[in-house]
Amino acid sequence: MHSELLKTKLLKDFYEFYPDKFHSVTNGVTPRRFVQLSNPGLDALLTRVIGENWVTDMDKLKALENYADDAAFRDEWIAMKRQAKEKLAGLLKDKTGVMLDPHSLFDIQTKRIHEYKRQHLNLLHIVSLYNRIKHDSNFTPIPRAFIFGGKAAPGYYLAKLLIKLINSVAEVINKDPQVNGFIRVVFYPNFNVKNAQPIYPAADLSEQISLAGKEASGTGNMKFSMNGALTIGTLDGANVEIREAVGDENFFLFGMTEAEVDQLQSRGYVPANYYHENSHLKAAIDLIDSGLFSHGDGELFKPLTTRLLLKDPFMALADFQSYENCQDDVDSAYCDYDNWNKKSILNVARMAYFSSDRAIREYCDKIWKVSPLPVHL
To answer: Phi, psi (5° rounding) for residue 38?
Structure first.
């Protein structure tokens, strides 16, 4: 997708001069760090059932598909995942004081804090859930732990304010006994490569929710899926290829396509219309503006809500209803926990393409024109 954008828009004149110099290589992540080092439980399980060479030959993961319908293997998978969730819950308790139930769905969005990554879309859904639990006694979502992590650029005021809002929403929700049995929210401090290692193994759901056409590729989505998380995402960046690899039925898709984004922008996008027409969305934004999450200060988060209502450059309001509907599908799928874990196994089994080994081989073949050179030790 982004190669075509480069050819047709951003670098159109260069492409017309040098079409043979444009190549598309999807990046990848190393299983040595992001599975073997990060997730020793999964490493041990994979090595036992498919052999130790999987880490340098990811195609061997395909053999896991033979175990997806094996009830005994799924039990081992569940135990491995539960152990990873208990480890992360313990770390978060030590770092933040927030207690998470490892039996709840771990819904995780960890990445750079930026409007185009749309952490605010995730947060609007959480505030909507909070509001619905408070006002509808018949609404009982599955227990879920929402985990955020990431850093904002030093001068990016709105991104830093978004971090503040996430923590402020967490403070209110986690202290409310009417709500905290259903949902809890926590911000993982000092997110970096080393601190991320216990996060990927513990994820049940990976949030990859940028607006279609804005993400060049992404690698967090690969790290999560390689550790058995299911993805909720748009058709953006490597999400497109991950969905093709794991199967439509093992991916939670929502939101506009790139073409639909362009069409809406050309017609004239008026975000306030979505606010007025969607009662859940309106209630969530109004709740933020009420000062509930800012000790009565109704102005603190106005720069965020006003920008959403007047500009919303990454169309979070336009995608909100589709996102909320898709999250309802996640709830339904997680209720069938046995089938959820089958999907988790298949995600790992179909991740070979997203190894950095494959990406480097493509660079060697397409761009650098070099051959492997054995090193004799």
So the answer is: -75, -30
Q: What is the pLDDT of residue 149?
A: 98
- Look up residue 142 and give its DSSP letter: P
What is the rounded CA–CA span in Å between residue 354 and residue 366? 17
Length of the chain: 377
Print burial letters for 182-207: b (CB count within 10 Å at least 16), e (below 16): bbbbbbbeebeeeebebbbbbbbbbb
Query: What are the φ/ψ torsions at residue 304 (nearest 5 degrees)?
Result: -75, -50
Tokens 């490892």 -> residue: 102
Place of tokens 């073949």: 365
- As a whole-number percent, the residues of the chain with pLDDT over 90 amount to 92
- Which residue type sits at 175? K
- DSSP secondary structure string, 246-300? H-GGGEEE-S--HHHHHHHHHH---HHHHHHH-HHHHHHHHHHHTTGGGTT-TTT
CA angle 56, 57, 59 (to 5 degrees): 150
Q: How many CA atoms lie within 13 A of 232 on its CB side?
A: 27
Q: Where does the chain have alpha helices with state H?
A: 2-5, 12-17, 31, 40-50, 71-96, 119-135, 157-175, 193-196, 199-202, 220-226, 239-246, 258-267, 271-277, 279-289, 302-310, 316-335, 337-349, 356-363
Question: pLDDT (tens digit, 9 = 90+) per residue, 57-97?
Answer: 999 999 999 999 999 999 999 999 999 999 999 999 999 99
- 198: CB partners within 8 A, 6+ apart: 38, 84, 87, 88, 91
* pLDDT tens digits along 13-61: 999 999 988 888 889 999 999 999 999 999 999 999 999 999 999 999 9
Q: What is the DSSP string of 188-219?
A: ESS--HHHHTTHHHH-SEEEE-PPTT--S--S
* Cα distance between residue 323 and residue 346, in whole Å: 24
For helices 316-335 and 337-349, the axis angle rounded to 10 degrees is: 110
* H or E element that contains 149: strand 144-149
Write the DSSP symbol of residue 235. Answer: S
Condensed to tens digits (0 to 9), the pLDDT of residues 134-174 reads 999 999 999 999 999 999 999 999 999 999 999 999 999 99
